[in-house]
Each structure stands twice: as C-alpha cells, then as structure tokens.
Amino acid sequence: MTDGVVILGGGASGTLTAVALSALPDVGPLTLVDGAGAFARGVAYSTEEPRHLLNVPAGRMSALPDQPSHLLEWLAVRGETPDPEAFLQRRLYGAYLGELLGATGSRVQQVVDHAVALAPDGPGLRVDLAGRPSLRARAAVLALGNFPPELPPGWTALPSRLAWRTPWASPEDWPAPEAEVLLLGAGLTAVDVVLSLLARGHRGRIHLLSRRGLLPATHPPRMLAAVPLGPRTPRLRALLRMFRETARREDSRAVLDTLRPELGALWRGLTHPEQRRFLRHLRPWFDVVRHRLPPEVGARIGALEAEGRLVRHAGRVVSIAEQDGRVALRYRPRRARTLAVLAVDVAVPTTGPAMDVRALDDPLVRSLLDSGQARPGPHGLGFATAADGAVLGPLRDRLWTLGGLRRGDLWEATAIPEIRMQAREVAEALAGQLRTAGAG
Ligand SMILES: Cc1cc2nc3c(=O)[nH]c(=O)nc-3n(C[C@H](O)[C@H](O)[C@H](O)COP(=O)(O)OP(=O)(O)OC[C@H]3O[C@@H](n4cnc5c(N)ncnc54)[C@H](O)[C@@H]3O)c2cc1C
Asked: 331: phi > 0 → left, psi -120 to 50 → alpha, else beta; which?
C-alpha cells in the first residue's frame, strides 16, 4: 500500500525516473517494482559477461542529463580510467546505475513482483501484482523496457533446450561446445550471444540468419566529427536522397551521428505512410549504421567469419521442426525461389525486443489496452503518449511512461542519452501534476 508513486519496471528507465523523483518535493513514497528483481540493471546491464560491452562510448553514457561528466567522474573515483571514448563493460555500467539507485536510500522501496494490471481507483490507481496484494498509488510510471523477442510460428512446439524462448538463457541451457547453433537475427543481441558462446569455449559453427544477412556496423576507434548535411526537407524520399548523397563523400556513420539529435523530429515530421515505408524497407539498413559494435567486438566477429566459424545467411524463416533430436529450420533465401534447410543442435531467437504492443501477450500491456486505459502509439510501437510522457487516455493525469513504450512517438527512445532526458521530464511533469491535484 502506498499513497505515492509506483514505478513499474526497475531497469535503467525505472531507476532513473526513481532517482529524478527522489530529488523532488511532495511526491510521497516511491515504490519501484521489478518482476525480475533486476533493479538498476534491467535487461541490458544485468549481464555478468565481461565481453559484453556498452555500444555507446563512456563520454555519452552519463545517467544524469545535467551532468554530462558524471559517469567519467564516477570512474575516476573508483580508480578506473575515465576515457570518454572507451566502451565500458556493461556490468560496470550496471554497478554505476546500482550506486545511483542505492544513493536514494530508503526513499525508494524495491518490490520484486510482476505487475499484471492497472486500473483507476478513486483519484489514484490500483496496481495488481502477480504474487502479493495490490498497491495503491496517486500516480504510476510504466518503465517496462525490452519485451522478449517475437517467436516465429511453430517455435514453441519444440522443447526449449532446442529452441530457446529468449536470448538470455540460464547457464544450464548452454549448448555443448561443439554444437552447431543457429541465431535468428543478426543484430546486437546476436553478437551478445556469440560472445557468450565464445566465453564458454564454444567450438561449433554458429549460423546467423536474418532477412538481409547484414551485421551491425562497427564504431570507429575515435568518435567521428560532425559532417555538413544538405537541407532536411521533411519528406522520406528527400531525406533518403540527402543521406545517400552525403554518404557518397562522407562516412555514413558520421552522417547518421550528425543527424542523430534531429531523428525524433524528422520521424514525427513524416506522414504515417512514410513512417510505415521506412519501417518496412529502410529500417534494417538504418539499424545497421545506427546500432554499432565496439571496434574490438567488430574485429572479433570479422575474424570468426573469416575462419568460417560464423556463417551468415539472408532469408526468411518458413518453418521450424524437431528432427532426430535436432532442429530443422526451413527458410527462403533472399531473392531465391527454392527453400533451403539448416540443421542445427540449438536455435536461439535474437531478433531483438518485440516492439508491437498489439501483438504482445504481456498481461499488463494486454490489460491496459483491453480496458482502454492506453491505446497503441503509431504503428503499434508502444503507447500513444503526450509530449511529457503521459499515457493518452482516461488516466492521462496519473499514468506516465518512458523508454521503449514511446518508440512510436519519439522513434529514438531507448538508449541512455534519450532515457535520462525522458526520466527527468516524466518526473517533473508527474510532480507538477501531483502538486496541482494537491492544491485543488
Ligand atoms: C543487450 C542490450 C544492450 C544495450 N546496450 C546499450 C548501451 O550500450 N547503451 C545504451 O545507451 N543503450 C543500450 N541498450 C538500450 C537499453 O535498452 C537501454 O539503455 C536501457 O537499458 C533500457 O532500460 P529499460 O529500463 O527501459 O528496459 P529494461 O532493461 O528492459 O528494463 C525493464 C525492466 O522492467 C521489468 N518489467 C517489465 N515488465 C514488468 C512488469 N509487468 N512488472 C514488473 N516489472 C516489469 C523487467 O523485468 C526489466 O527489469 C541496450 C539494450 C540491450 C537489450
């Protein structure tokens, strides 16, 4: 029971919201609820694997928007090298967020449980939990983060030791070192799994299957300088032309980095059909340049591919079945008419977090949509939200969100440079609303 604010999801988004709220007066007690007990760390920073590195240089990973050197200063105090261009271990970043949360002391109560429903309750809210009595609050923040990847049809008919349900397996699930492994999806999550396999001495061949067979680009060893861009006419075709023309003479990574601060505004300036065309046709190419590997990881992956231990395939999954205790995955290779089959010992879904809330079977998301307390945002990418992160609908004055659930409205919503800003904006808007309600 609480009369303050409940934050659902205790990863980086929930934690930074709790930290921001704890610095504001009159918000009452703060409760941070996390189903996995992954407070501060969430999905990205819970890893204990030292080879899992941040994909953003340390100089851009401060958790506090008004203190850009905060992480570097924290590193210096710990006796670590505060190199702004370094790609830190993600577990170290998790420790950093953990300390920030710890510094709120008894101000933030932590509850390990899954929120399964949320409903209005007088002027406040009731949050139903899976394992204990409901919580009551004046306001709530949804910081639900990364949902498990969508699984292709037929996947769950296989035993989970053959076809993992998520890319984040527990240690006893790891395949034998000589096993042949298929990773479905070739982005940053796939690279994480490759690194984890190598750390366990994996020797078997690893296949990566994705629609276009592209690997993420690699970060340059030093940050790239901004490049001159052409006019940003807010039409998809014109933007694409400008990008292509600039990338003919400049590094495409530098072109995207220069555009990055404007990406949200450019996304919002597109028409709905243009956004849809971007998602269908351009997004895979965009993701490759936008979501990059640290240089040493890129080199490692390149070497594995050159040795033939990592094999990339481009195509679409058609079916998956168990055959003689192994996995037979039929797929249609890109631009081919006939089907191909990959026979492997284990298949792992690494397509990245599921994004379309309309297709999720998460109980809390379902309950919010089915009861009309929230509605899908553009293209189903999260919920429809106001500029300050309030969830549009009947609970607008008491329900906020940030991170992945704002993708449809903001596009760039899920990395720390965006999350830290959103956390502060949500905290300020929410505290302002509570003050207004208290005065009324
Ligand atoms: C592998 C990986 C690496 C990344 N690396 C970087 C990086 O280097 N730099 C960067 O800026 N960004 C990175 N990101 C982006 C990353 O998503 C954000 O930086 C940030 O961690 C997102 O935090 P979050 O709290 O929104 O989501 P999450 O980390 O997914 O946390 C959400 C939390 O909510 C909990 N939860 C969900 N539903 C409920 C419920 N109903 N009830 C209770 N609890 C619930 C979950 O258990 C989870 O702990 C990475 C992402 C991933 C997946």
From this structure: beta
Q: How far is the CA of 70 from the centre of ligand 1 (A)?
A: 21
**φ and ψ at residue 158, rounded to 5 degrees:** -85, 150
User: Regarding beta strands 135-137 and 124-129, do their DSSP bridges make them parallel or antiparallel, or are they unpaired?
Assistant: antiparallel
Euclidean distance between CA atoms 435 and 309, whole angstroms: 60
- The pairing of strands 135-137 and 139-142 is unpaired
pLDDT of residue 1: 45
User: Contact 166/148 with Cβ under 8 angstroms?
Assistant: yes
Ligand 1 and 167: CB distance under 6 A? no
Domain 5-147+354-439 is in which class? alpha beta
Domains 5-147+354-439 and 155-217+292-349 share a fold: yes
Any idea what the Cα angle at residue 315 is, between residues 358 and 148, rounded to 5°?
Answer: 35
> Could you tell me whether strands 5-8 and 30-34 are parallel, antiparallel, or unpaired per DSSP bridges?
parallel
In CATH, the number for domain 155-217+292-349 is: 3.50.50.60
pTM of the model: 0.96
Q: Which numbered atom of ligand 1 lies nearest the CA of 365?
A: 41
Give the type of residue at 113: D
pLDDT single digits (tens) 226-263: 999 988 988 999 999 999 999 999 999 999 999 999 99
Q: Is 55 in the pocket of ligand 1 (CB under 6 A)?
A: yes
With a 6 A CB cut-off, is 193 part of the ligand 1 pocket? no
CA 150, distance to chain mean position in Å, is 14
In the three-class reduction of DSSP (H, G, I as helix; E, B as strand; rest coil), residue 28 is classed as coil
Inter-CA distances, 105 with 23, 39, 61, 98, Å: 12, 14, 23, 11
User: Domain segments of the chain: what residues?
Assistant: 5-147+354-439, 155-217+292-349, 236-290
